[in-house]
Specification:
Helix content is about 60%, strand content about 5%. It contains 5 helices and 2 strands. The chain has helices at about 1-5, 15-40, 70-85, 100-135, 145-165; strands at about 45-50, 55-60. α2 runs parallel beside α4, α3 packs antiparallel against α4 (about 100-135) and α4 (about 100-135) runs antiparallel to α5 (about 145-165). The chain is elongated and about 60 Å long.
């Protein structure tokens, strides 16, 4: 805890990649809102509320449960954006010094922003799957798409760890 108090507080501008991530994240939230609004009238009173590992619905909810997706995406965006702004309080596995702080903070902020985007995509994809299942339409890759997004989260974290370790 004492080491965190000694860490330098720095603010660096967003990189072009980070700006792109923000734009795509906000567009993804807009897509989630659009999907909900567009599908609402066509949805039955009860929609899938949970899927088994095979991608088949195994529990049902009121269609208002579909609001979970755009609301959760928006909350995740806000909270993770706030979190990415305070990298000096993150838990790092190595010492943060004046020499490495700027690079370590940029890498950590980048990871949080990338994970934010992937989380929003997972929510949008879950919403799309729910709508597809509720309206009895083809679901495409089903749960494989979700697994791919989760693997992207793990890969992103691994890439961050390697890059941050090199930037010590």
């Amino acid at each position: 805890m004492h080491e965190r108090k000694r860490r330098p507080a720095m603010r660096s501008p967003l990189s072009p990649l980070e700006i792109g991530i923000e734009v795509v994240a906000l567009a993804s939230i807009a897509l989630s809102i659009y999907l909900t609004a567009h599908a609402w009238a066509a949805l039955p009173a009860r929609i899938p509320g949970h899927f088994n590992l095979a991608g088949q619905p195994d529990a049902y909810s009121n269609r208002s449960a579909l609001l979970f997706y755009p609301i959760s995406s928006s909350i995740a965006y806000i909270l993770m954006s706030l979190l990415s702004g305070i990298p000096q309080f993150f838990n790092y596995p190595w010492a943060i010094t004046e020499e490495n702080a700027a690079r370590q903070y940029r890498l950590a902020r980048g990871l949080i922003n990338w994970l934010k985007l992937l989380l929003i995509w997972i929510l949008v994809y879950g919403e799309w799957l729910t709508i597809q299942a509720a309206t009895k339409q083809a679901t495409g890759p089903g749960m494989l798409g979700l697994i791919a997004l989760l693997l992207c989260m793990l890969l992103s974290t691994a890439v961050y760890i390697v890059a941050a370790r090199r930037a010590r």
